[in-house]
């Protein structure tokens, strides 16, 4: 039985096997949650991201890669790249769904039992909060990865927290 949890706050503080990063295709860091993860996690994460870049040239939108987690409480960071909101004209919903599925798939392949997601694409990438929340919750509840026992949504802002709280209670 998979548990769905909701926490308001900073994902770098969460104690789970893996936290997910809302990265960009370069994997070289940025602002928002990506900036926070690299800042708290330390240089080891970026070093591993550079190796992945050398091997496969970054990460495409909707895909995910995994590194260790440096100084974070988590054991791994799963870096996924959300879509930039383009008024719904660029297949954003499918791409956002793929972020959650591919992150869970990678987690499952790496023996991860607990994972925490930020609200991918809803910051700098401008995805409308309600649509993004619907996709995130529907995708993880319908996903079938029996080894993953716990999925935590970590909401940084009040608006996202309230939305998730309402929607998760309706499940
Ligand atoms: N913990 C949890 N959630 C956070 C944190 C944190 N410490 N900080 C911000 N958020 P964003 P995106 C929330 O902008 O929209 C970067 O430059 C934030 O409130 O981090 O996918 C990357 O390198 C929002 O709800 O990611 C990319 O270039 C959510 O995390 C670009 O931003 C996502 O906001 C990706 O944009």
What's a concise summary of this model?
With 171 residues, the protein is an alpha/beta fold. The protein has 5 helices and 6 strands; from the N terminus they run E-E-H-H-E-E-H-E-H-E-H.
Number of strands: 6
Strand order of the largest sheet: 1-6-5-2-4-3
Strand content: 15-25%
Query: Which overall shape is indicated by the principal axes computed on the Cα atoms?
Result: globular
- What is the CA-CA span between the terminal residues? 15 Å
CATH class: Alpha Beta
Q: pLDDT average, as an integer?
A: 98
Number of discrete helical segments? 5
CATH topology: Leucine Aminopeptidase, subunit E, domain 1
| Biggest β-sheet strands, sense, barrel | 6 strands, mixed
């Amino acid at each position: 039985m998979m548990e769905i949890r909701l926490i308001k706050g900073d994902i770098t503080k969460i104690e789970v096997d893996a936290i997910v990063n809302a990265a960009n295709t370069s994997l070289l860091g940025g602002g928002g949650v990506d900036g926070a993860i690299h800042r708290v996690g330390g240089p080891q994460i970026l070093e591993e991201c550079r190796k992945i870049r050398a091997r496969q040239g970054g990460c495409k939108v909707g895909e995910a890669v995994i590194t260790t987690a440096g100084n974070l409480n988590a054991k791994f960071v799963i870096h996924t790249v959300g879509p930039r909101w383009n008024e719904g004209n660029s297949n954003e919903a499918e791409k956002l769904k793929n972020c959650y599925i591919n992150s869970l798939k990678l987690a499952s392949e790496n023996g991860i039992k607990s994972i925490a997601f930020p609200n991918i694409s809803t910051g700098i990438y401008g995805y409308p909060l309600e649509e993004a929340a619907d996709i995130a919750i529907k995708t993880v509840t319908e996903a079938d990865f029996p080894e993953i026992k716990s999925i935590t949504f970590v909401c940084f802002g009040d608006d996202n927290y309230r939305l998730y709280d309402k929607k998760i209670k309706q499940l």
